[in-house]
Amino acid sequence: MAKPSVAVAEASGVPAQASCSCPCPGTTLFPYPPPRGASGIAAAAVRRKCLQAEVGGGACWGVESMRASSPTHARAAAALAGAGADEEEERAAWMARHPSALGKFERIVAASEGRRIVMFLDYDGTLSPIVDDPDAAFMSETMRMAVRSVAKHFPTAIVSGRCRDKVFGFVKLAELYYAGSHGMDIKGPAKASSSRHEKAKAKGVLFQPATASEFLPMIEAVHERLVETTRSIPGAKVENNRFCVSVHFRCVDEKMWGELWESVKGVLREYPRLRLTQGRMVLEVRPTIKWDKGKALEFLLESLGFAGCTNVLPVYIGDDRTDEDAFRALRRRGQGQGVGILVSKHPKETSASYSLQEPAEVHLYLSICSDPARVYVHISRPPPPLLSLSVVLCSRQLMRLLLRRRR
Ligand SMILES: [Mg+2]
Q: Is 108 inside a domain boundary?
């Protein structure tokens, strides 16, 4: 079990505060992993309350908030090694609530029968592994092939916090929709898909919030200020994502997180029209426009002609806190009207219905989705007489993964 963390002010190296305004009990504000059982549920409610107030918080719970959204391998391994019976029980309960999308694949197929699937994919941590250098978050060629294969059968969109051009540079598939900057910059396919789905002809920019362009000079200025103010923090990397600025801290020593939080907050105070949100190992400065990945999902469904339709099944796969907006959007559609899949090895509060542990499992899931034999269910055409070798390989991979999970 994870040891309770020490007082954050001491651990983070920021000046100790006389008291913390955060309502979390004791000094362990957001323990990772979360406390289990009934007390765990209560603590989770407190944690939610804390996170809702994140922009107003000081370094104390700012650091804890960063920890909560950014589990590290070391903490996760320590938690796993020290996991007691209660933790195992809670983990099993979490898996019961958010079962593996691979294990429940047949159930998802049954739910999608006679309906058009629309696939939404986050990029970092979903299609590519989380790596130290955000500029080196490349996806594998096999993952690219799986996404390409899915896009042949279903409208497919990449929804990312990165700017659209950058995420396109990683994915390199012109037949997809791209929603960059958390959905604030959406563009249709640059070339027609080979599938028969919606007239995915070349389209220009589909959407940018009306006031978004007003923010561009401000975002430029904030980017410069953040580069300047975080220069003294080793490992901090500031990325201009056009309609938002990302401050990556995956290479920053945890003792410096408090200082980084204060630096970002300090800059943000000068820009009341911008807000701070958090993702996995990243702080993000965004316009105060009411737009997020959930709105982008709804917009794309509408653009594809599925507004108010029940014969469509959106599937969203993502690993990040910002993906929760999309999972909630699916929940709002009603029971069985969407499939949210969280990519995570560890129990997390989520509005997703299913889980996958890592990008390798996402690859497998996408491969199976585009299995010609299964695609038959969705597009009503006869399956090929023989299953391809890749399908056989996928089945073997699936068996290996399921067996590994069972151990
Ligand atoms: Mg992600």
A: yes
